[in-house]
């Protein structure tokens, strides 16, 4: 059972994390809104649509900023306890460093549970709705959802199970209709890639329907002049980091079955699994700076330390992601290496902590 002192420490962890998170997300939302102004006026995409789009992406932004907010919030709010010698008094009353770390991690557990719920249950759906809103504002004939991309161009309907990096479409179906709205042909391709102003379809199967029957043909490759405007694909692509873990797992399975590159999505999947744990690591990193000489220097010094550690973690994570892609490292290693590195730093710092 958590004692009164434990609840006091946990409350400071939660309060600090929440307040810093609100500040970081507010700043990020302002910059995101400024970035969206460049698309305002394109099609039916106006200022209101841009605002709604940014609001729909907020759950994902909150999810990504939780570890940094936990680090900064703990350094500032628990730092106030250290500056007032409250933590020293707790240690003098018999509270061990291990007990204090346990309380901090208990507060981190509450943060992590909320983070996972937001990132896996709320953010992906909100992100998809935001993408749909932006896509529909650009062109009413386009829509994208969890069941893929749908586009209509006159008497042609295009469906793709996946929008892939490199402006490619995976598992494409093209339905051609006649003037009387009767289906006259159905074309299926494993992959569609834009090339030199046209589209190249791979592993093509086509069925042509007529009053006399169905004629089928197979082609290894076919070039078509018109399928989907490539400039829309930049809007339609949902980045791997924006997808839920279960969606990433299903998508990786689909890519492997179709012999397509799944490396970016595998790295994103493992990052999804390690991101909540990174919140605990950030909290562990904060504790050594709450005692001894490290606590001196005021809130400004602690804020500077937190920013340096947070930025360093993000940079190492991005560097490892790119190195993993370039040197073909195992996705789990590329995604988890920053976590293990900073965990080792936190444990070493804790082992040298003195009141």
Describe this protein's structure.
- The chain is of the alpha+beta class and 355 residues long.
- It folds into two domains: 4-139 and 239-351, no CATH class; 145-228, no CATH class.
- Helices cover 59% and strands 19% of the residues.
- The protein contains ten helices and seven strands.
- It has helices spanning 4-36, 47-56, 58-83, 86-92, 97-138, 233-236, 245-257, 263-286, 298-326, 331-351; strands spanning 142-145, 148-153, 156-164, 168-177, 183-195, 198-210, 213-224.
- Strands 1-2-3-4-5-6-7 form a seven-stranded antiparallel beta sheet.
- Helix 8 (263-286) runs antiparallel to helix 9.
- The longest helix is centred in the first third of the chain and has 42 residues, at 97-138.
- The mean pLDDT is 81.
Can you tell me the number of structural domains?
A: 2
Binned strand content: 15-25%
Structural class: alpha+beta
Poorly predicted spans: none
Indicate the mean pLDDT: 81
Shape: elongated
Q: Report Rg.
A: 26 Å
């Amino acid at each position: 059972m958590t004692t009164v002192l434990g609840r006091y420490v946990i409350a400071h962890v939660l309060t600090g994390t929440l307040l810093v998170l609100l500040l970081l997300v507010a700043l990020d939302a302002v910059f995101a809104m400024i970035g969206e102004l460049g698309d305002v006026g394109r099609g039916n995409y106006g200022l209101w649509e841009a605002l709604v789009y940014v609001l729909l992406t907020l759950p994902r932004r909150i999810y990504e900023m939780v570890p940094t907010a936990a680090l900064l919030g703990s350094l500032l709010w628990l730092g106030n306890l250290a500056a007032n010698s409250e933590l020293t008094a707790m240690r003098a009353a018999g509270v061990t460093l291990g007990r204090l770390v346990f309380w901090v991690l208990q507060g981190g557990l509450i943060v992590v549970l909320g983070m996972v719920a937001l990132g896996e249950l709320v953010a992906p759906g909100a992100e998809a709705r935001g993408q749909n809103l932006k896509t529909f504002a650009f062109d009413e004939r386009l829509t994208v959802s969890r069941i893929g991309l749908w586009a209509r161009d006159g008497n042609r309907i295009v469906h793709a199970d996946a929008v892939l990096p490199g402006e490619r479409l995976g598992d494409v179906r093209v339905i051609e209709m006649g003037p009387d709205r009767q289906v006259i042909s159905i074309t299926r391709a494993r992959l569609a890639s834009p090339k030199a102003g046209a589209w190249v379809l791979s592993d093509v199967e086509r069925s042509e329907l007529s009053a006399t029957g169905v004629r089928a043909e197979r082609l290894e490759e076919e070039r078509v002049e018109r399928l989907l405007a490539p400039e829309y694909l930049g809007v339609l692509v949902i980045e791997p980091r924006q997808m839920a873990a279960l969606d990433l797992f299903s998508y990786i399975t689909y890519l492997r079955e179709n012999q397509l590159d799944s490396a970016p999505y595998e790295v994103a999947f493992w990052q999804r699994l390690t991101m909540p744990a990174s919140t605990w690591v950030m909290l562990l990193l904060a504790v050594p700076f709450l005692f001894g000489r490290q606590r001196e220097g005021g809130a400004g010094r602690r804020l500077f330390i937190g920013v340096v550690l947070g930025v360093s973690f993000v940079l190492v994570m991005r560097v490892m992601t790119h190195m993993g892609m370039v040197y073909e490292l195992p996705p789990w290693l590329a995604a988890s290496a920053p976590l293990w590195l900073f965990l080792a730093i936190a444990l070493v710092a804790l082992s040298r902590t003195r009141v």
